[in-house]
Specification:
Elements lengths: L1 H37 L3 H19 L7 H26 L1
Keywords: Chloroplast, Membrane, Plastid, Transmembrane, Transmembrane helix
Pfam families: DUF565
Protein name: Ycf20
């Protein structure tokens, strides 16, 4: 019984991390106009996003990364952010 409750808590934490990433992805679209006014070139925003995702991928797929639970948390946040970008792109397009 204790093992199933622990598994449920882990799944619940991972789902919350996914939704946190989704929220971050949607909030990015909200603050995009502010960022566009502050930076000279829109490509800088793209480079910053790509750099952050590559840094996160380096952390996730590094073999020396011992904590597998933290690895799953980072991956779920990253997937949520990407899904948030995708959904926000459909909101802009419609």
């Amino acid at each position: 019984m204790k093992n199933s409750a622990s598994g449920f808590c882990i799944i619940l934490i991972l789902i919350c991390c996914f939704y946190l990433g989704f929220l971050i992805g949607n909030l990015f679209g909200t603050f995009l106009n502010f960022l566009r006014n502050q930076l000279i070139w829109d490509g800088i925003i793209l480079f910053i996003i790509l750099f952050l995702f590559e840094l996160l991928n380096c952390l996730i797929y590094n073999r020396k990364f011992i904590n597998k639970f933290l690895k799953k948390i980072f991956k779920n946040i990253q997937l949520g952010i990407l899904l948030g970008f995708f959904v926000d792109a459909f909101k802009i397009g419609s």
